[in-house]
Model the fold of this input.
Amino acid sequence: MTESEKMSWDLSQLVDFDDPGYIEERLTAAIKAAEDIREKYRGKIEHFDASQVLEMFDSINEFKLQFDGPIKYARLIYSADMNNVVAKQLNDKYRNSFALIQQAQAFINLELGVLLTIKPELINDPLLNEYKHILEKVQRNIPYMLTECEEQVIIAKDKNGVRAWSMLQGDWLATRTYEIEIDGETKMLPYGEIIGLYEHPNRDLRKRAHQIVYENLGKDEIVWSSALRSVFSDHLTMCKLRNWPSPMTQSFIANDVDEETITALMNVIEKNVQVYRNYLRLKAKAMGLEKLGNWDIDAPLPNSPDKKYTWQEARKDIVEAYTCFDEEIGTWIDEMYERRHIDGQVRAGKRSGAFCMTWYTGKSAYILQSFNGIMGDLFTQAHELGHSMHAYLGTRAQKPSNYEIGSCIAETGSIFGELLLAEKLLSQEVSKEERQAILAVVLDGFGGAAYQVSTRVWFESMLYDAIENGKFLDGERISEYWLKAREKMYGDSVEWLSEMKWWWTMKLHFYMANYRYYNYPYVYAQLFVYALYRLYKEQGKEFV
Done:
């Protein structure tokens, strides 16, 4: 098997047959199964005792396990290549099926909410101990629930509304290509490849890559602004319909946190922006610059070895890093490579960024990434594999109905994995320059996750305030708010290309339907993990 083949995932494991017709049949069957659950339980849940609630959860778990593979197959094949006709067809079938499944099962949480209002003691019933978390989350959502008919209408609205806008942003970005000259040769690169140049040792090339990408993204500002404006405005409409106290309420419930905690977190970041600015100035000094350009923020230090990692080298270093922490976890990490559960190939039409998706039925996960062989890609892979460990452990400890992890906790395993990799790389026989390069990646990553990500939180809040105050958000105005949030974080510590005002266009987190304030969990987890890692270093194997 070639290295390129090893870098592509094998989705056939998700299903009995990977024939498109079979996948569509299974998605159709999922609709029927969801309707059967509706027929069996609708109108009855509010009268259930604990044993009946348990039996209902067993039925829901069976449904989720039965159709987990085909659903994940349709989603993943599309994420890997949005230009593929078959992938488009399966994704469309998934979207339509998912909406119908949601509509069929909309009654469940509503009736559970009524039941828990009548019998709140069920949350602590020993028989339902395994489902305490999901019951607590349902209870927390009770004040914001609507009628079944209203919930079904919202699901239908979202499919061709905010979910369609979100898909448009992802599709448009994934299918863009960029012309750039490298070493005298003109190349046409997909988005996933040209962003690999952001960490290139050649400063001029880094700068040109940024200019080309964001100049081109800016040309499509009407697409990005229309999508962003629609998703944000829709959320404010939902806030009014559900009586959410603020645009952040939904995220607090989803992430199992409270407003006081997140407000305190963001206040601490704001009070300490000078720490990050000082780091950026120190990095500028280390690079022999008066001031960093935005194209230098994630750049390697001048004397860093210009090393490209092969897929096998990445696998070796990451597996060893996790094995040093725990041998069994190291074996699981290696299994992700061996079973080809990671898609690292760079291709046009591939979803931007990286993610890990849990495969509950297989008690495993699948990872998507565009691997260009730079050190940053190594850390991204270690990050996503940290998520896969949540999948390995969580699917063995929890039933499907109670598996969902709030993002503040979900990001801990991933960031912890980055630190394990850093320590592993530093433990090898490396030169002073290599050691500095590794530490720079760690510090750049901390600055990005704790500080730059906070900028996104402020930006999102600014946009909600603007819409509520009657402002029309075209591309230029959205960019004004982005620059304002950026200034709040960076001050005058960085020189910015004018094209960088369009940075917000490509960040898919802003466009995700019904997933608002995606970003503060990274800030939370970054600080939380550093505290955990300190305990690990103090306690050693006892911590594990």
Summary: Residues 432-468 form the longest helix (37 residues).
